[in-house]
Amino acid sequence: MGRKLRFATTAMLVVAAGIYINNTNLLAPHRDGKPVLLAHRGMAQRFDERDLKNDTCTAARMLPPSHDYLENTLRSMRASFEAGADVVEFDVHPTTDGEFAVFHDWTLDCRTDGQGVTREQSMAKLKMLDIGYGYTADGGKTFPFRGKGIGMMPTLSEVFTAFPDKKLLINVKSRDAGEAEKLASVLNALAADRRRTIMVYGGDEPIEVIRRLTPEVRTISRAAIRSCLIRYIGYGWTGLVPAACRNAMVLVPINVAPWLWGWPDRFLNRMNGADSAVFVLGPYSGGEFSTGIDTPEFFARLPQGYSGGIWTNEIETIATISGKSKD
């Protein structure tokens, strides 16, 4: 009995040592360099994030502005790249005249002087709207951007033309597979090398279509990221990368990251080997995915010398802290 116990103990120690060696960050090659910064919505006005719901008009909860950039505009995107962003995120909606409008909200009523569902409009009509109309930081007493956003809602093709060699992340706002087919047609009209610089995320149904029709494009959906992280936590110690983590944009809440086998360098190397890009978010608190790495306190929670991706709503702040600022 003693011999069997010793054998079992030795076997367990060997297995534990193997798992440790296969996953310890101490033995993983470290990728030098500065982190990859993703500017969510470009340079944008911040708002009070407390008690947000799906129908909350965030433009009416704007914080006192520190700049005059409006999200999802060419001017905002350009400023983000100039500030140090490597990737800019923006939102799209199909229009009735065959374009894709770059605009965040499902409806026009909050931010603009228009009304109705965004995707039920023509691009010609959307171009006439004032996208700065609804912003207020004092409960409607003043509207600092009213009249300054007329004609500033861009099309997807205008974004591609303005930034022909920049990395972009497209957010599909619907769960419409038909919209994804239209977007895939637009993406497939680009050169294959260009498609590799574009990522797409959104609902499960459209992302499944994009993943199938445009294989060069990295994708992620809410279900896919949960599957990726949960499965990796479950068996990533083996070195195997789950299918949901392959050719993907892997979003990692900063409070989940320490649970990932080999975090950070071995995990980053495994994802890179699976042709995936990793971006760290702010803490996940249940229900909805988290905010970005937007404060010095959140940035300080990243590993020393971290060179993976960072998702941020405060590109100027994080670019400065990370040493990516071009000023």
TrEMBL record:
<dbReference type="InterPro" id="IPR030395">
    <property type="entry name" value="GP_PDE_dom"/>
</dbReference>
<protein>
    <submittedName>
        <fullName>Glycerophosphodiester phosphodiesterase</fullName>
    </submittedName>
</protein>
<dbReference type="InterPro" id="IPR017946">
    <property type="entry name" value="PLC-like_Pdiesterase_TIM-brl"/>
</dbReference>
<dbReference type="Pfam" id="PF03009">
    <property type="entry name" value="GDPD"/>
</dbReference>
<dbReference type="GO" id="GO:0008081">
    <property type="term" value="F:phosphoric diester hydrolase activity"/>
</dbReference>
<feature type="domain" description="GP-PDE">
    <location>
        <begin position="51"/>
        <end position="322"/>
    </location>
</feature>
<dbReference type="GO" id="GO:0006629">
    <property type="term" value="P:lipid metabolic process"/>
</dbReference>
